[in-house]
Amino acid sequence: MREFGYQRAHDVAGALALLDAAPEARFLGGGTNLVDLMKSGVERPALLVDVSELPLDGIEVTADGALSIGATVTNSDLAAHPEVRRRYPALAQAVLAGASGQLRNMATVGGNLLQRTRCGYFADTARPCNKRTPGSGCSALDGVHHNHAILGASAHCVATHPSDMAVALAAFDAVVSYETASGPGESAWEDFYLPVGDTPHRETALPPGALITGITLPPAPVAAHSRYRKIRERASYAFAIGSAAAALDVRDGVVHEVRLAFGAVASRPWRARAAERALTGGPATAAAFAAAADAELAAAEPLPDNGYKVPLLRNVTVALLTELAGIAGPAEQTEPTEGAKR
After folding, report:
1. Is pLDDT at 217 greater than 60 in this prediction?
2. pTM of the full structure
3. What's the gap between Cα 108 and its chain centre?
């Protein structure tokens, strides 16, 4: 590990000033991802600016009915907050599924959004990785990629985003707030994470030197009837091989509103817009849920060893939506439509 300096910031302006004065500095929240990457040599900051004690640890309902979440709120406090559990249960479930209690006690909301991929080649400084060293190549394409992307990837990177919390936030149209030396800014969720393209090292739309200060969840009555489902390779805490956050409003057997997002399938949390369009205004049946999943997954481009994610996400979607609709699931899974077969 490279030798580094450490300074604790006491206000947002001070944190920004410390980072501006040291171009190789990094903000430190809980450190549950950054410190690991420093140990492996992937991250080599000259200075850590500790922002964990900034006054950004509140959760409150705003005057317009939105939920405001500070960037230094710990994952444990987020999952336990009564307004989160009541209004956005899928978010609380996603956070609880994401890590052990010890890690949730340390990890912060702002840090969770910025955690880096768990691709083994990204963490191995001896192997080429375009996300770590732009232009060096993607080792996963011809290497171990059974848990890599099937949607929105490119020839430059097939890594997936590891966050569970971010999948639920994608379903609920979160807005990210930040501060820079020139003033505050906001980013809609759909703009926050950048497409991987040919610049996988550029992961978010945050301006250089920006500090995330919070997240706002707009009012969404449908979110109160939501669930998060995570599939992993072992029962203990592990990163997902596929996950989904869903919210559903059914009236007289018809889908009035639906929210759906996938995790562990792309370089960013994946909002399933095609599936939502296919479902809205249609029947709330297991067959319709399967067809909607097929519509979303028709764009999947799996690699030789991760094609299992297509039926996995299809089955998770059907199971989650039938549970939310309060109907019986299919006794036997129907065959995927032709466009979804891979």
Report:
1. yes
2. 0.93
3. 14
